[in-house]
Design goal:
72% of the residues lie in helices and 0% in strands. It is mainly alpha-helical. α12 runs antiparallel to α13. The longest helix has 19 residues.
């Protein structure tokens, strides 16, 4: 079955090549027919599990559809080529193919398909190439924002934030969160803004900026957070002001924070681990006169 399908695919490729040939009586290549044959060949190779050849045919089909002005079909073939890249474990071209397909979809007027494709490609790359995944998601968010899909834009932006936090790029993550607040002012949903406020608060702590964290509480917390969340953030601010490491650890280990997105739960855990209580106990040894009046200082860093 596989061999038969592969042979059928190569026959389709031969037909496609003939459609592209010109002669004295045929001045213009038949791009549309060639694209259809390359598309058929790609299907045959996919069924025959020859994924590399399937990918190559899909790219050729896309290029020929593009020559004929069939932008949607060109994008669709490029979309399928991305899937074949994943099948053969070649992720190096996913970013490039996704950007090209997205461009074709947008030119066709299918912006929704463009952003969905970019999101799908970003999911493929988030482990092997998070940098490219961030770029794809930012583009998906920008497309959705301009097409009045503000809620979708916010969702893509939040995925960007999570990746940036994972990469410990806190300044960039902060900027993306602030973009979510901007999108809310443009009519975006407010249902998750309490959680997002806490995320921004934690980012300020990660940057060792307690003043900025308090400003987040005052500027956004009072508007978007529940009373229990406000109390938690206020307690953390107070604990930092008092250098109360034990209280900071307690609040950062609260159930609410532990059940946040995993990247922020890990961030909070890292912050809590930095808070080492530093007791300054005076130790008097009555039995040993030489130790009388001496003190022991337990070193450590207090938040």
């Amino acid at each position: 079955m596989s061999k038969d399908k592969i042979q059928e695919g190569r026959e389709c490729m031969d037909k496609a090549a003939k459609y592209l040939k010109t002669s004295f009586l045929k001045w213009v290549p038949d791009y549309d027919s060639a694209a259809d044959e390359y598309s058929k060949a790609a299907t045959c190779f996919r069924v025959g599990k020859s994924y590399k050849e399937s990918k190559e045919c899909l790219i050729k089909a896309s290029e020929n559809y593009l020559q004929n002005g069939s932008l949607f079909h060109a994008a669709k073939c490029m979309d399928q080529a991305i899937i074949m890249s994943k099948e053969i474990g070649d992720m190096s071209e996913v970013f490039k193919l996704a950007m090209r397909a997205s461009h074709y979809y947008q030119q066709h007027g299918s912006s929704g398909s463009a952003s969905l494709l970019l999101n799908k490609a970003a999911d493929m790359l988030q482990l092997s190439d998070p940098e490219s995944a961030v770029k794809l998601l930012k583009e998906a968010s920008n497309i959705s924002g301009t097409e009045d899909s503000i809620g979708q834009a916010m969702e893509y932006t939040h995925k960007v934030v999570r990746l940036l936090v994972k990469l410990k790029r806190y300044e960039e993550a902060e900027n993306e969160i602030k973009r979510q607040f901007d999108l809310v002012t443009e009519g975006g949903p407010t249902s998750n803004m309490g959680r997002i406020t806490v995320e921004l608060f934690l980012l300020q702590l990660a940057k060792d900026d307690n003043v900025a964290a308090k400003k987040v509480l005052n500027d956004y917390g009072m508007q978007y957070c529940e009373q229990a969340e406000i109390h938690m953030l206020d307690s953390i601010v107070s604990a930092y002001s008092d250098h109360d490491g034990a209280q900071i650890k307690k609040m950062l280990n609260s159930p609410f924070i532990k059940h946040m997105d995993v990247e922020f739960a890990i961030l909070a855990k890292d912050l809590a681990e930095k808070c080492i209580v530093e007791p300054n106990e005076q130790v008097t040894n009555i039995e040993n006169e030489e130790a009388e009046g001496s003190s022991t200082d337990f070193g450590g860093k207090l938040c």
